[in-house]
Design a protein that fits this description.
Length: 143
């Protein structure tokens, strides 16, 4: 497993601003990833982890902080997630690896449309949905 500031972009889309990097340019990082059959762990958060912190039009953003692994490591940690955190005082965003994974989705909040009252069958549907939200207690009733 390899993770951190790799100081090189992997592909042209990993850079915004400044001179564009051509597809034909030599890319040592891409060569290493290919030679070793590395898997990019991806990430959650800001897609660009470094900035030169200059004002526009001289500002440059790049994805330099990444995590790669081999297939054996991925099998050992199938729920692993990489998080790009917010950069406050640095030109690099901190990168964090969570090998247990995180719940990234929360239960959706209950929504009620007043027009549902006009349909007689919606009463049961809404009551069942609401009851499931409050641990089986039918706390919501039409009156």
């Amino acid at each position: 497993m390899m993770m951190g500031d790799l100081n090189e972009t992997l592909k042209p889309e990993d850079k915004e601003g400044g001179r564009s990097v051509g597809e034909a340019s030599s890319n040592a990082l891409a060569d290493i990833v290919f030679e070793h059959g590395s898997l990019d762990l991806g990430f959650v958060g800001n897609p660009l982890t470094w900035s030169n912190r200059r004002l526009a039009p001289s500002n440059i953003y790049e994805l330099l902080d990444r995590a790669f692994c081999d297939s054996n490591w991925r099998l050992l940690f199938p729920r692993a997630r990489v998080l790009h955190l917010s950069a406050h005082r640095s030109n690099h965003a901190p990168i964090m690896l969570n090998t247990e994974g995180e719940v990234t989705s929360w239960p959706k909040s209950f929504r009620f449309e007043a027009m549902w009252i006009l349909d007689d069958t919606s009463r049961n549907v809404v009551e069942r949905a609401w009851a499931g939200r409050v641990n089986g207690l039918a706390a919501f009733r039409f009156t």
